[in-house]
Amino acid sequence: MTNTRPLAMVTGGSSGIGLELARQFAEHGYDVAITGSSSKVDNAARSLRELGVEAYPYQADAATYEGVEGFWTFVRDLGRPVEAAALNVGIGIGGAFVDNALEDEFRLIAINVTGTVHLAKRVVQHMVPNGSGRILITSSVSATQPTPYETTYGPSKAFGYMFAESLREELRGTGVTVTALLPGATDSQFHENAGLAGSVIGLSKKNDKRDVAREGFDALMADKDHVVGGDDQTKQVVIDNRTTSEPVKAARHAINMKPPRPQ
Fold first, then answer.
1. Quick one: pLDDT band at residue 1, thresholds 50, 70, 90?
2. Span 111-130, pLDDT tens digits
3. Rounded to whole angstroms, how far apart are CA atoms 46 and 211?
4. Average pLDDT of 243-253?
5. Domain map of the chain by residue range?
6. CB under 8 Å to 6, separation ≥6 — which residues?
7. Which residues fall within 8 angstroms of residue 108, CB to CB, at 6 or more apart?
8. Contact 104, 93 (CB under 8 A)
9. How far apart are CA 132 and CA 84, in angstroms?
10. Cα 222 to Cα 81, 183, 199, 218, 225, distances in angstroms
11. Is the pLDDT of residue 203 over 80?
C-alpha cells in the first residue's frame, strides 16, 4: 500500500450518510479511516478498498470519552497528516421527552455534542500546525427549527451547526476550513433507529443518501460554510424556516414527528 494518497477520517462511517461520505473520499483518491459502533465497520472498510484505496476500520462507542479518544489515537498512530475529517456520527431519539429515559437523552448529547467537540479539538490541533485541512460537521435541517418529539436531537444539531460556523471563522487564515452539512430526511436507518419509523416523516419519501453525501463532499471541497443536503423541497424548508416563527415551526414538527398511538 502507498502513503502518497491523502488521508480522510469519517465518524459513523459504517453505514448511512457516513459510509457514503467515506465513498466520496475514496472515489476522489483519499485513503479513509472510519469508525462505527459495530463490526459492520469492517465490512464497510472492505467495500471501500474495492475502490482502490486503503481503508482503516476502528470499532468504538462514540458515546464514551474512551471511544472517541481511541479513534483519534488510532488515526494519529497511522503517522500521516489528516487532510480531511468528516465528523458525522449522530443519533436521534423519538418520543415525548416526559417518557424517554434520561440515560438515553444523555447518550444522545454525548454522541452529538460532546463527542463532536472532543474529536474536533484533536483534529483542529492536528491540522492548524500543518497549515491545511478540511472539516465537515454533519448537522441537520432540524438545526433550523424546534423539534418536539425529538426534543434533544434538534438542539444537539443546532449546536453542531453553530459550532461549525463559529469554528470556521476562528480558523480563517489558518489553511483549515470548516463546512456544515444539513441533511433533510434521508434514506438511512435514522428514523427506524430513533423509533420514528411510524411518524409522518418516517413514512415519507426520503432523500438519497448518496446525493446528500455528494453535496456535503462538494461543499467541503468548495470551502462553503454550509450546505443543505437534499432535494429542492428540503432546501426550501430551510429557506422558509428563516422567516417562520418558532411556535409555528414547532407545531408543524410535532404533527410530523408525534409517534402514532398504539393500536
1. very low
2. 999 999 999 999 999 999 99
3. 22
4. 95
5. 7-257
6. 29, 30, 31, 83, 84
7. 91, 92, 93, 152, 153, 156
8. yes
9. 9
10. 20, 18, 36, 6, 9
11. no
Report which of 212, 217, 187 is spatially closest to residue 202, judged by C-alpha positions: 187
- Cell of residue 194, nine digits: 430513533
CATH architecture of 7-257: 3-Layer(aba) Sandwich (3.40)
Which one-letter DSSP state was computed for residue 145? Answer: S
150, 92 contact by CB (below 8 A): yes
Q: Which three cell numbers stand for residue 236?
A: 426550501
Q: Which helix (H) or strand (E) holds 31?
A: strand 31-36
| Residue 57: Cβ within 10 Å count | 21
What is the rounded distance in angstroms from the CA atom of residue 62 to the CA atom of residue 27? Answer: 26
SS (H, E, C) 167-193: HHHHCCCCCEEEEEEEECCECCCHHHH
Nearest to 229 by CA among 221, 239, 219: 219
d(CA 227, CA 239): 12
Nearest to 34 by CA among 19, 16, 52: 19
H or E segment to which residue 247 belongs: helix 246-257
The whole-number average pLDDT for the span 41-45 is 97
User: What is the reported pLDDT for 192?
Assistant: 63
Measure the N-to-C terminal CA separation of the chain; round to a whole number of Å: 56
Closest listed residue to residue 7, CA positions, set 35, 26, 27: 26
Contact 71, 64 (CB under 8 A): no
